[in-house]
Amino acid sequence: MKELLELFKKNKAWVKERLEVDKNYFKNLSKEQIPKFLWIGCSDARVPANQIVALEPGELFVHRNVANLFPNTDINSLSVLEYAVDILKIEHVIVCGHFGCSGVKAAMEDHHLGLVDNWLRNIRDIYSKNQIELDNIEDINKRYDRLVELNVFQQVMNICHTTIVQAVWQKKQKLSIHGWVYDIKSGLLKDLNCCYSNSKQIDEIYKINLKK
Ligand code: CO
Fold first, then answer.
1. Structurally, how many domains does the chain consist of?
2. Do residue 106 and residue 199 come from a single domain?
3. Predicted structure pTM score
4. DSSP for the chain?
5. Residue 124 C-alpha to ligand 1 middle, in angstroms?
6. Domain range holding 92?
7. Does 124 participate in catalysis according to the annotation?
């Protein structure tokens, strides 16, 4: 219990600190949230979304899970995305992976971890799809880093292929999907330069005409 009481103590101290700066801080924050970005990141405790990009409460809509996945049929991720773009009118979705991701590493090994093995199957599929490129990288750490990047690319594509994003683009509503990787060792973000902002950028087979 002691540890948990410690958290309540920290919470009180944080509230006090905020109110000292602005006595209406929580009053104003409780009125509404107007985040400009949706962050899809890993649950890893070393990758705290708001802190990495120095954004305040209310400024970032966040969804985190093991290895920052956006599986095509995951109702949780899909609901977050739909709410973000349809209700909050967010114009930028960021998929942020991170080097040193244990979820990605686990997907390169044959150890049994539990239920999460099935979740990480999504990453094994990405490895399989890019096997020639990955197997040609002799340095295992570099191969691991590359899989982190390829995982981000795939999740960006999964988001682009949803009916949610395609509907937004067909309505000519502004929306860009970005792929980034966070480097835990330096604290810096790496832009993978994969920015998708219209349906012309996606493969024909994934295109769905939502006006039909
Ligand atoms: Co991770």
1. 2
2. yes
3. 0.95
4. -HHHHHHHHHHHHHHHHHHHH-TTHHHHHHH----SEEEEEE--TT--HHHHTT--TTSEEEEEETT----TT-HHHHHHHHIIIIIS---EEEEEEETT-HHHHHTTS----STHHHHTHHHHHHHHHTHHHHHT--SHHHHHHHHHHHHHHHHHHHHHTSHHHHHHHHTT---EEEEEEE-TTT--EEEEEEEE-SGGGS-GGG---TT-
5. 15
6. 33-206
7. no
Residue 211 forms part of a structural domain: no
Residue 147 lies in a domain: yes
Which pLDDT score is estimated for 166? Answer: 97
pLDDT of residue 212: 73
More confident call, 211 vs 38: 38
Per-residue confidence (pLDDT) for residue 1, from 0 to 100: 57
| Whether residue 44 lies in the annotated active site | yes
Q: Same domain, yes or no, for 27 and 108?
A: no
Averaged pLDDT of the chain: 96
- The pLDDT value given to residue 135: 97
- Which of 22, 74, 92, 98 is catalytic? The answer is 98
